[in-house]
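Give me structure tokens for this 547-residue protein.
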Amino acid sequence: MALAGVLLAGCDASLPKARVLPGPTDPDGTPVDPLDAACRGQPRDPGRVTLHRLNRAEYDNTVRDLLGDTRAPAQDFPPDDHGFGFDNNADVLSMSPLLMEKYSHAAQQLVEAAWAKGTLRTCELDPATPEPCARALLQDFARRAWRRPVTPGEVDTLVRFVAVAKQHGDAPEVGVKLALRSVLVSPNFLFRVELDPAPTSTAPHPVSDTELASRLSYFLWSSMPDEALLKAAEAGQLHEPAVLEAQVRRMLADPRARALVDNFAGQWLYTRALDFAQPEPRYGFDEPLRQAMRQEMKLLFQEFITGDHRLKDLLDADFTYVNDRLAAHYGLPPVGTDAMTRVSLEGHPERAGLFGKGALLTVTANADRTSPVKRGVWVLEQLLCKGPPPPPPDAGGLAPSVDPTLNIKERMRQHRADPTCAGCHTLMDPLGFGMENFDPVGRWRVKEEGGAVVDPSGELPGGKTFTGVVELRAVVKQDPDLSACMTRHLLSYALGRGAEDADRCTVRAISKEAESHGGRLADYLLAIVRSDAFLQRRGESPGGTKP
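Here you go.
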């Protein structure tokens, strides 16, 4: 049985044992996966994505690419909420009066700075007849900022600011700058607008080419389409499979694809959370170590974007990036530099893959001790998509009366002895125990601080056993639900909405397509952008009823 299957059952000891029944087969008798059989011939609902406000990272990247401004003004905006693990989920990206005020202030500063540098003055404004230059300038700027062609009426509305400025005795450039600011506070800039020809129809329809260009650029770059992508969209070519694939591969080779590292992997792999980790001083954790751990995770994932590695190999990649400080922390040979350097992990299998990385081990620990629960839940939620239900209200931590000379596995037995906790801890704890050789900041250890010998063995519901992190990651990597779970997280991020139960057939199809093409990260990304969920959308009936 799949690991995820036994884990799911492990959270409810009262479930009756299921009888093993013959599964579906093809006409020739070949067994067929039950989910594949259920998905055959089923229409794929692309879902409905809420009007998507740019989050802080997307805003900063967009003004960088639009205006060349790298000051990151959105860092002064209120924090974005999260949904389904990501801060680009449209359903939680609300708009408040404070945020609108911040947008207005940022627009003024951005326009003034860009005007002073001359980046917006593509023609000279004739004081006597400024309209022709103003029209050309504003049409080009609005097209790029709104990520689509603009209509003559929209341009007329912008050019009227020049006449308003003249009526108040101001120079034409005052009116042009007002118009530029209005572009930057328009919903067409602040939101990724997608229109349904029939908003109350639940029939799927393709997104337009320019809408697809924005979906693609904000997925891969967290930013606006560049000129090459926008021109392909305006030519009506982006839905052509060959053109779409060529654009994806071009964009992944661009430095802007580092946004996948910062914004997708940073949240999926919890790298961002490292900024808030505060281990107790006795562990020797400091800012240089934090920075090295963060860079290690970023460089590792970056190589999976550009290199020829299967995405599943994140679990046991036999290389990493360290500097002298991180190498010493890990017990690896020094590299002779403070710069992050790629090294082989031959002879150090405990450090291979995600489970041996200090960043992940630190953020899934407590400040003063390890947490098998946090580490186990991370594996369940981020790799197998089988997160346990919330703990009961009266659930607590380790009881202070427990003998501190016992190792953490012995101390955790109390949870499994409590009927209200036993089911979930039986599935969470063993996964965390497999990483118990790592202390709260990821240093290797064979004894806990109290002197007890570490016991990194675990037994999963169903009887499967392992000892240590090397065997643990082999168990997880072999689980058939791993690919679908990675797909689910990628799809949620790509669409800006949660991939839910209704998407299981879509997730299944994307996962199988990606693995059939080699299982690299690029294969997953291409399978997603080819899917109906990415290429289509639908409206919603007045009562909110979905198909």
